Amino acid sequence: MVETGIEGVCYWPAYFDASAQRALVGAVSAVVDAAPFFTPRMPRTGKPFSVRMTNCGPLGWVSDKTSYRYQPCHPETGAPWPPMPDALLALWDDVAAVGAPAEACLINHYPAGARMGLHQDRDEAEFAAPVVSVSLGDSAVFRLGGTVRGGKTTSLRLKSGDVIVFGGPARLIYHGIDRVLSGSSTLLAGGGRYNLTLRRVTPLTGNAAKEAP
Ligand code: MD3
Ligand code: FE
Asked: Per residue in 30-72, pLDDT tens?
């Protein structure tokens, strides 16, 4: 683990080696076969995101003209999200330090040119649990700010196999992806980048609530 100088942000460069990355891509492909990528849209305006999304686990994040929300089924097929791969449950157990499993894994696909503007993640009902991010494929220029919009920001290059955890005071920071560096990895056959984010969505209860950091 590497210190980032930002309280609550833990960074594991190359947490997954090349063979573990290939296994994860296989697991993501199986998820995508069952739950195809959809194009999320901004609430109200309906403007499409440049990032495509799908999910696995009991709950998945979706966004359409109505709202941002978590739901148990795919917005287009109506099928329940596929189960979370064991490797991701094991990652959560290793790095999240909360006594309850991840409930949602959002899979973002960045084709060449896609980006994600600065935002906070606040659609979960539990901010005591961290968000755990895994990067696969092309490297990305990741921007992190503070908990208020308009503050100072720093940037970090996330590479394939990197894991970064946002907990405690960092759980509600502004963050986004400025750009993806096309051709920086050969992991994904079609190029581009995947980002997997593991989250707790519903409130921690019992011992998990008492023991959360
Ligand atoms: C800091 N994803 O899915 S990963 C997102 O690379 C999202 O696709 C980006 O922002 C991506 O919401 C950034 C790093 C990340 C993810 C979630 C966070 C940083 C975070 C939640 C809270 C604070
Ligand atoms: Fe986010």
From this structure: 999 999 999 999 999 999 999 999 999 999 999 999 999 999 9
Whichever domain contains 123, its CATH number is 2.60.120.590
- The verdict on the CB of residue 177 being under 6 Å from ligand 1 is yes
Distance CA 70, CA 63 (A): 9
Distance of alpha carbon 146 from alpha carbon 182, whole angstroms: 28
pLDDT value, residue 4: 86
pLDDT tens digits for 132-149?
A: 999 999 999 999 999 999
Residue 50's domain comprises: 2-211
Q: pTM here?
A: 0.98
Q: For a ligand 1 pocket test, name from 175, 178, 199 the mutation site with the most ligand atoms within 8 angstroms of its C-beta.
A: 175
Helix (H) or strand (E) holding 105: strand 104-110
Taking CA atoms only, the protein residue closest to ligand 1 atom 7 is 176
Residue-wise pLDDT tens digits, 155-185: 999 999 999 999 999 999 999 999 999 999 9
Q: Which residue's alpha carbon is nearest to atom 16 within ligand 1?
A: 133
Q: How far apart are CA 177 and CA 188, in angstroms?
A: 19
CA distance 7 to 166: 9
CA of 38 to the centre of ligand 2 (A): 17
Our answer on whether the CB atom of 10 is closer than 6 Å to any ligand 1 atom is no
Number of domains within the chain: 1
